[in-house]
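Researcher: Dear colleague, please comment on this protein.
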Amino acid sequence: MEDSRDVLENRTLKRLFLFIYLVPVFGVVPALWTLSRRDSDRKQREVSRVATLIGLAWLIGTLLLTSGVAVTSGENAQSMGISQLLFNSLFTSSYFLSNLWLMVRVWRRQSLDLPGLKRITKYLP
C-alpha cells in the first residue's frame, strides 16, 4: 500500500490540482490552502497566487458593483442600476473566461504571465 505522500507526488495529480485552483470561485479555497503550506512546488504556488489574486479581485469588484446598485437613487436610478448590473455581468463573465484561458495555458504547459500581474504576485507568499 502506497504512502499518502507518494500519491501526492504523482505528476498527473499535481497537474490536476493546477486545474482545480483555476476553477472559478471554488478554486480559491484550495489555492489559499496550497499557499499556506510550505511544501508545495513552485508551479503549484505560481498558479495558486494567480488564482487567488484574480479571485479576490473578482470578489471585491463584484461587491463594489453590487453595493453601487443598492446605493443608486434619484431620477436616473433605474437606468444607472441596470448599467451597473450589466457591467457586473460582463465583469463576472470576463473572470470566468480568464480562468478558462488560464486552464488552457496550464494544459499547454505555458506560463501564466498575465499583463501587470507578475509584479503583484511576487509580493504574495
User: Anything to note?
Assistant: The chain has a mean pLDDT of 82. Helices lie at 4-8, 11-21, 28-36, 42-71, 77-107, 117-121.
